[in-house]
Amino acid sequence: MSRRKELIALLLCDFIALNLSWFAYYWVRMHSGWFYSKELYITHSYLIPTSLFVYGMWMLAFLFFGLYRTWYVRPIFDEIVTVLKTLALGSLAFMVVFYWEPISQMDSPVRNDPRILGLLYFSITAITVIVFRLAIRYSQRRFLEAGIGMRPSIIIGDSIKAKDLAQKVVHYPRLGYDILGYVSPNGANSLPHESFRINSRKGSTTEREINQLGGIADLEKITSDHKIKEVLIALDSGDHDTLIQIIGRLGRTNIGIKIAPDLYDIVSGQARTREIYGFPLIDINPELLRPWEETTKRILDVVVSSLVLFLGSPVWLLTAFSVKMTSKGPVIYSQERVGKNGAIFHIYKFRSMRIDAETGGPQWASKNDPRVTPIGKFLRKSHLDEVPQFWNVLRGDMSLVGPRPEREFFIEKLTNEIPYYTRRLKVRPGITGLYQAMIDKYDENIDDVKERVRYDLMYIESMSFRLDIKILFRTAYMMLKGKGQA
After folding, report:
1. Gyration radius of the chain's alpha carbons
2. Cα–Cα distance, 170 to 184 (Å, whole number)
3. Which end of the chain, N or C, is less surrounded by CB atoms within 10 Å?
4. Which value, to the nearest 10 degrees, does the dihedral of the CA atoms of residues 196, 200, 206, 212 take?
5. Measured in Å, how far apart are the chain's first and last C-alpha atoms?
6. How far apart are CA 43 and CA 320, in angstroms?
7. Phi, psi of 84 (to 5 degrees)
């Protein structure tokens, strides 16, 4: 089952389960005779509208807690626990809004106790939603075991290790890996048409051939040509450089990377252990933020950027006028940058340099840069030149907090020099970041970039909503102190 079909199936089943739960609760509450009520507080004519409203609220809660992410490769118990936690918190809120009646006004205080009503609604909803989701997961598992909805995958390793891993993967069809071939870590030293055979399915005597698709140097082309979604790595524990090279080459893609446990020490800061169906593979590109943190981070981005652009508009118009009157050229400077997962977008700034600042090609900024205009010195010191980037944040190209977006010219250059550099592309770039909040200077050479990347990776591995708030307050302090660089 593809990711799109999985999402559609989940949305449909949750729609049925949540509405069915509401109708069942309505009947028990109003018509079963178990609870006393002088009059129906929700009449039949309002039953469907209230059901749709309640469903909408649950949809937001499910999104907030990550219940529409891919769960089929995780233990079903984890999904059930998340469903129960989400429903428990939601039912508590609904209990206050819908069920509350002062006990002194109740004709039957025990039976109409809002705590009992809330527990009743939670129980009905939990049973219904979990049953429907279990049905989805069972169907999904059966499809995968039948070879339907598998994710195109390759193995990186020599023929012996690749064969061993491929044969193990066959015994876990629920993982959804469809092995299309393997890539040799030895490149040109390996045989051009080397292949091996494995059982086509668990318990089957039918064999299938797994061919070598090329070497590490061909990795980008192989993954693109075969539309690869997952890469499984089976290297010797001493192949540190090869593993770092693989991660660097795939850093700008959405391809999942899994490694064997004996390689974990190499990337201990870049991975999180996740055992699936007892199958020992470790995810190199895990979800960096919990679902509620990711949702809250985006809400904060939208709210803050909207307020800054709207409430500060008189100041921004005055700033634009000052730029126009003090130097020739456009008010807003636009430049291509590389965003999340390698997406190209245009970043916007108030122009702080002369229009001929890069006639000789891309250059590093420097302290007291002579290309900076008189008003540009003030803008850069106060960070006001960054204000138009709030539009990038509102559009979703950037976030308030994250690694600074870089130009493709420098990314291509730095990827070969700095291990894990492209891991910065796993998150949205930001207006400010850990480096800017702590150091706050422009990159003048490759050593400055290496230092910034170290801070960026520290931020990525420690990402949390709480850390973002700290960075924002620290950045505000830096702005008030005028600690920018001119």
Report:
1. 28
2. 20
3. C
4. -20
5. 54
6. 58
7. -65, -40
Q: Residue type at 195?
A: S
> 189: how many CB neighbours lie within 10 A of its CB?
8
* pLDDT tens column, 386-427: 899 999 999 999 999 999 888 888 787 777 777 677 778 888
- Exposed/middle/buried for 81, CB within 10 Å: 0-12, 13-18, 19+? exposed
**Rounded (10°) CA dihedral 419, 423, 429, 431:** -40
C-beta separation of 242 from 235 below 8 A = yes
Output phi, psi for 283, to 5 deg.
-85, 120
Instruction: Note every long-range contact of 185-193, with CB atoms under 8 Å and residues 24 or more positions apart, other chains counting.
Output: 185/156, 185/157, 185/158, 185/215, 185/216, 185/235, 185/239, 185/242, 186/158, 186/215, 187/215, 187/216, 187/217, 188/215, 190/158, 190/159, 190/215
CA dist 307 to 92, 303, 304, 477, Å?
A: 32, 6, 5, 19
As a whole number of angstroms, the distance between CA 314 and CA 331 comes to 15
Question: Per this entry, what is the length of the chain?
Answer: 486
Report the alpha-carbon angle 356-357-360, nearest 5. 85
- Distance (Å, whole) CA 93 – CA 87: 10
